[in-house]
Amino acid sequence: MPRQTVALRDATHPLTPEEAAAVLALAADAAAADGSEPLSEQFRLSVRASEHGDVVHLLARGADGRLLGYAQARTDDGPPSAELVVAPVARRAGVGTALLQRLPDGTRLWSHGSGEAAEAASAFATAGRLVPVRALHVMGRSLRSGPAWPSVALAPGYAVRSFQPGRDEEAWLRLNADAFASHPEQGSWTRADLDLRMAEPWWDPEGLILVVEDDRPDALAASHWTKVDPPEGDVGEVYVVAVSPDRQGQGLGRAVTVLGLDHLRSRGLDRVLLYVDEENVAAVRTYSALGFEDVEVHRQFARPGVDERAGDATGSFRQPPG
């Protein structure tokens, strides 16, 4: 394999539309080869939007100009976090190492997938003297069989309705910020972050379920944003569950989670997945009680001494049910 060069794209030298398209095509090739997406949602959205600001893009090209690898580093949520992908035809040729060496100091690198892809990522991390510092569990269950989940039981004074575009954006962002105040990446979502997702093909306002006060329907107490991607697929996702901190302890997290499961089952889907940090013991326990089981584990790697508790890198997270 000819020697590759690595180019940096940032606010000064932004990604071109052609480069963004090439990156997404490379990621799609890798997903087809590995059976799992190499880039999480937030990272893919940053490519599509040609986002820069606190985002750095690295492009590894061969002598013929062909894109061989890509890495993205984000510094908007504490120490840099990154994801990296190498074209299947260019692996074991030093492309990943070249990208890794150009990442900012202290970067924490995510590995997605399972099986051979996870084993290869772990070997790559070991060769780069990185150690695992976090784990994100992918849990799933059938929507048609398996343990039954309980009926919804809301405390008196609450009602349920769907998200209404043009009415609920700012209130939902406030709820999200409050619920994830200790989680820099999720809690820092802006209107632009929300608008990006509402522009995605999978966006469905009926799937964003709100628990509100009976006498104040604009006062949000909890929400469950469900997701079906692709929209015509048969797998749903517990995308974001948020409970206002001042409503914790009322069973709203469990109730709104069940409301989302009911909604996804009503669509005739086969399965549902969710992502949860392994250190979120309360959430793991709650989801396990609802019949969820581990499907795979995504891991984050860093050089020894990097603070693994600062920030995070994936696109969506789960609030412990309250």
N-end to C-end Cα span: 54 Å
DSSP helix count? Answer: 9
Cα-based radius of gyration, to the nearest Å: 20 Å
Which sequence of strands runs across the widest sheet?
A: 1-2-3-4-5-12-6-11-10-9-8-7
CATH evolutionary superfamily of the largest domain: Gcn5-related N-acetyltransferase (GNAT)
Strand content bin: 25-35%
Q: Based on the structure given, which CATH architecture of the largest domain is correct?
A: 3-Layer(aba) Sandwich
Overall mean pLDDT: 88
CATH topology annotation of the largest domain = Aminopeptidase
Series of secondary-structure elements, N-terminal to C-terminal: EHHEEEHEHEEHHHEEEHEHE
Please give a structural write-up.
This protein is an alpha+beta fold. Helix content is 29%, strand content 28%. It contains nine helices and twelve strands. The longest helix has 18 residues, at 17-34.
